[in-house]
Design goal:
Elements (H helix, E strand, L loop, with lengths): L4 E2 L11 E5 L3 E7 L3 H6 L15 E6 L5 E10 L2 E7 L3 H12 L5 E4 L3 E8 L2 H8 L10 E4 L2 E6 L5 E7 L5 H4 L5 E2 L1 H11 L35 H9 L5 E9 L10 E5 L2 E13 L4 E9 L7 E2 L9 E3 L9
Parallel strand pairs: 1-12, 2-12
Antiparallel strand pairs: 2-8, 3-6, 3-7, 4-5, 5-6, 8-11, 9-10, 10-11, 13-16, 13-18, 14-15, 14-17, 15-16
Length: 324
């Protein structure tokens, strides 16, 4: 493969018109076997029974108390269910799925033989049409062409995930002259689109609504019982949830620290408002932050304690949290 990943970290405005991203921190949990759908249906928030080879579902895997182990995109590939997600949430989710899977006719494991890339930008669809006999779209978001899975992600900018066997990655990727960026740029796009990214420390800390899963069609409220369903339903119908996922932006002089949080101003004092889930800091210091904060009608002034003079602003998301 002649593709070379660019180590630069541009801001959103500095990204190329069309580009590739090597999803090196991406992986998947596969479920196969006679009872794969029946078992998974009782474990996750999305309606697995409505999935087929051309559908894309967003969902979460929770514990019995409704706390999220992982947020995933579900596709079907080679008669298996694949839960696509960052590697950071794989181990815990896999362990919990396997724990109860011993009572069903299902094989659950992390996929080892696939590579993941993203194609993003203005010319993405045209380039795929030149290389493949079929291209996914909003009506058919998943297409299988030979050994290649193509996934369309709706949003402000055209995004496609390309999945293939590691030893036979599609010629389109291997021979591409497009600029190719690292996984960090994918995180930037996910943050801007309000799709939750769970770090290892965030696993098991939040219910789905705190991660805006209800706003991105990641929860089915009609599918019936699944692990953690009581808590999720209570949050939805009794209005118990007071936190939400936000996209923030700031300009920093120094790198963000691992222990940094978001603080809010209360009068002349400051107090912790919430945790940072993920962030992307470009080479010019622009920082996009994904954080779980109180869902207040009027957001107070925010800051990062280690760089408290930096102005932190709330960014608009491509969806609404209003569930009325």
């Amino acid at each position: 493969m002649t593709l070379v990943t660019n180590t630069k970290l541009p801001s959103l405005a500095q990204l190329d018109q069309t580009y590739l991203i090597e999803l090196s921190d991406y992986s998947a949990i596969s479920l196969s076997g006679e009872e794969q759908s029946k078992y998974l249906q009782g474990q996750v928030t999305c309606d697995v029974n409505s999935s087929n080879e051309n559908t894309l579902h967003i969902g979460a895997h929770c514990d019995a108390k409704g706390k999220v182990f992982s947020v995933f995109r579900l596709i079907n590939r080679s008669s298996e269910h694949l839960l696509l997600q960052p590697k950071a949430s794989i181990n815990c989710s896999l362990k919990e799925l396997q724990k109860f899977g011993v009572f069903a006719k299902v094989t659950i494991e992390e996929v080892q033989n696939l590579s993941y890339f993203a194609l993003v930008g203005k010319d993405a669809s045209d380039l795929l049409q030149q290389a493949f006999s079929q291209v996914p779209d909003s009506l058919t978001p998943v297409i299988q062409v030979g050994s290649t899975s193509l996934i369309y992600l709706a949003g402000e900018q055209a995004r496609y995930i390309i999945i293939d066997e590691s030893n036979a990655m599609t010629e389109f990727i291997s021979n591409s002259t497009l600029p190719c960026y690292s996984q960090a740029v994918w995180d930037l796009l996910e943050i801007s689109q309000g799709f939750p990214i769970l770090s290892e420390s965030a696993v098991g800390q939040y219910v789905p609504q705190m991660l805006n899963l209800q706003a991105i069609n990641g929860i089915s409220f009609t599918k019936g019982c699944y692990l953690g369903q009581e808590t999720v339903a209570r949050m939805q119908y009794l209005g118990k949830n007071k936190r939400a996922l936000f996209s923030l932006a700031t300009q920093l002089e120094q790198p963000l620290l691992a222990q940094d949080t978001i603080e809010k101003q209360l009068g002349e004092n400051w107090r912790k408002a919430g945790e940072i889930l993920s962030y992307y800091q470009s080479d010019d210091g622009h920082c996009a932050i994904q954080a779980v904060l109180p869902n207040e009608a009027e957001m107070p002034k925010l800051r990062i304690p280690s760089q408290d003079t930096a102005v932190v602003s709330v960014q608009s998301l491509p969806y609404t949290l209003d569930t009325e």
